[in-house]
Specification:
single chain, alpha+beta, 2 domains, 4-stranded antiparallel beta sheet, 6 helices
Length: 219
């Protein structure tokens, strides 16, 4: 597994985790599992819930887990090429997703609007119009165009115009809306920040070789 503290990968086996039962209530049987990262020596802990559902023939047990130290969304962090303010808001949107999809969606909408204004250079209007503007330019790959257009469809902007006019407002969300916003941000981060940085790095390396060969650099 990858340590959620230091992101170093280490071998995970059943013997790695120590388990301690907490109790059982109407929501299931609860326990806490903990281990220590061999790289950073920090404790990792997760809350486990086991529930038994009785079907027509035999009982079935479902188990869910949630990191409680550190709080972890299960999503990768925003790339370092993304500006710090966007990375911070994206991280918070990920962390609060399980507890408050409304708050997560509000943070994501605000981040999306800032990204479109800063990187796509859209005019400062409401988010719905800004999405229209960036789509009208046909500069995004088709899969990202469809994904960003779905933001307002899934979010039902027609019925909830406040999501477009005041992106940071905490309002009710549709099923899957908060998760979709995070998915869209991840795709846009890659397009606007990661890929240009990768290409620039390759261009710089090529220019070094061209200079060594006495040839003019790429412009």
């Amino acid at each position: 597994m990858k340590c959620p503290h230091c992101l170093v990968t280490f071998h995970e086996g059943e013997e790695t985790w120590e388990s301690s039962g907490i109790g059982t209530d109407q929501d299931g049987s609860w326990s806490v599992e903990s281990t220590e990262c061999p790289a950073c020596s920090r404790v990792i802990a997760r809350l486990i819930r086991a529930r038994v559902a009785y079907g027509s023939h035999f009982p079935m047990t479902s188990t869910t887990s949630e990191y409680i130290r550190p709080r972890n969304s299960g999503r990768p962090p925003a790339p370092t090429d993304v500006p710090n303010a966007m990375r911070v808001d994206y991280k918070q949107a990920c962390l609060v997703l399980a507890d408050s999809p409304k708050a997560s969606a509000a943070l994501s909408r605000r981040t999306l609007q800032v990204l479109l204004r800063d990187r796509a250079g859209v005019k400062h209007r409401n988010l719905n119009d800004e999405i229209d503007e960036v789509l009208g330019r046909n500069t995004l790959p088709s899969h990202l165009s469809e994904a960003i257009d779905a933001v307002r469809v899934i979010g039902n902007f027609a019925a909830h115009p406040i999501k477009s006019a005041n992106t940071s407002e905490i309002v009710d969300v549709e099923p899957g809306e908060a998760e979709w916003l995070l998915d869209v941000l991840e795709g846009l981060f890659d397009f606007y920040f990661v890929q240009p940085a990768v290409l620039q790095s390759k261009r710089d390396a090529l220019n070094v070789k061209l200079a060594d060969a006495g040839k003019p650099p790429l412009k």
